[in-house]
Amino acid sequence: MCATCGCGSGSTLIGGHALQRQRKPGEPMRFRAHDAAAHPPDTSTSRLVKLEQDLLAKNNSYADANRRYLSARGIFALNLVSSPGSGKTTLLVKTIAALNGTQPLAVIEGDQQTENDAARIRAAGAPAIQINTGKGCHLDAQMVGQAMQQLSLQDDSLLLIENVGNLVCPASFDLGEAHKVVILSVTEGEDKPLKYPDMFRAAGLMLLNKCDLLPHLDFDADLAIEYARRINPRLQVIRISATSGAGMPEWLEWIKDGCRNAVAVKPEVSLG
Amino acid sequence: MHEMSLAESVLQIIEDAARKQGFNRVKTVWLEIGQLSCVEREAMRFCFDTVMKDSIADGARLEVVETPGQGRCAQCGCETQIATLYEACPQCEGYTMQVIAGDAMRVKELEVE
Predict the structure, then answer these.
(1) Is residue B86 situated within a structural domain?
(2) How far apart are CA A176 and CA A119, in angstroms?
(3) Given A48, A52, A172, which is nearest B2 (Cβ)?
(4) Domains defined along chain A, listed by start
(5) A41 CB near a chain B CB, below 8 Å?
(6) Residue B35: which domain range?
(7) Is B83 part of a structural domain of the chain?
(8) What does the pLDDT look like over A134-191, one tens digit per residue?
(9) What was the ipTM of the complex prediction?
(10) How far apart are CA B33 and CA B44, in angstroms?
(11) Average pLDDT of chain A?
(12) Cys bridge to B47: A48, A165, B3, B6, which one at CB 3.0-4.6 A?
């Protein structure tokens, strides 16, 4: 188990079923002669094997497969990431209500434990599947691929993936989404982008949430946005409040644009 | 921290290599960790030892090779060493540095028998 946050290889459940981890053949090996001068083997029976293999290669290959599947079906997928308590699930529920059946959509919910969030999404009227990562601190592309199969996604739809509430680990794991959307709430510190830069670098859009509370707080919204753009100059930002509805039209328009674009670039060929 | 999953990826890479290249024991693992990658070195050490237990790399020595971060300014093209993702360009002072190296996490090499 991880010393820092306790994450580890606990049992992962997708819609209550165990995750099927399948081994895929690795990337082609590059095998070169010893670099004995740099670090000689300590006995004559030892040898050196050059690998140069990326630790994320396997996840990335699953993510590529997910991306191909989504793009072939004109599905616009978003990976929502944030600290715990930023208001992701409330924002999702409000988003589903505001789209009000005009946009076919489905939700993949990631949490370490409980079905609570998937139940909230289903109550809001959208199909949802819960991934329980057990001890895991992030979703990976293989889990999401299996969840997508179980969800039977509609063509030309929207897929919202709510990652485990964690501003660190999900940054490294591509799920095959079109964009990561990072949610920062104004009840957090405005320097959070500087403290957790990897996530803000990986995101395409930042939703600055709970903006209805700004009059009661010392939070400097402009400064928070400036910090986020120091890390990612191209980051788009929408100030929003899931509670008051401020900023929701802009967010919904951003989603619809993405959906229209996903359909527009969908290949013509039928996949059968 | 996701070092546990990353350590599991290291073990998978080792086991795949063992099958293809026919070795039974790993004595040393050279792991490249970029200064700008999302890996905490000490957490990785801890997870490495835990994950390698009862595998062909049980007790293997972990050698971490740290590579420096390198950025290029999108505004003025200046290339420089960077230690964080939010450094200003030393030339034009804009916050427009893009990472061009030092964010990799790789199993570089193994000593096996």
Answers:
(1) no
(2) 24
(3) A172
(4) 77-264 (3.40.50.300)
(5) yes
(6) 3-68+102-112
(7) no
(8) 878 899 999 999 999 999 899 999 999 999 999 999 999 999 999 999 999 999 999 9
(9) 0.88
(10) 10
(11) 88
(12) B3
Q: Check if A56 contacts B (Cβ < 8 Å).
A: yes
Q: Which of A135, A205, A206, A141 is nearest to A170 (CA)?
A: A141
The Cα B103–Cα B93 span in angstroms is 22
Partners of residue B1 in chain A, C-beta under 8 Å: 2, 4-5, 7, 137, 168-169
Q: In chain B, which residue's Cα lies nearest the Cα of A168?
A: B1
Host H or E run for residue A91: helix A88-99
Q: Is residue B35 part of a domain?
A: yes
**Pairing mode of beta strands B69-73, B97-101:** antiparallel
* Predicted confidence (pLDDT) at residue A5 exceeds the cutoff of 70: no
More confident residue, B1 or A160: A160
| Residues shown for chain B | 113
* Residue B93 lies inside a defined structural domain of this protein: no
Q: Is A7 a residue whose pLDDT tops 60?
A: no
pLDDT exceeds cutoff 50 at A256? yes
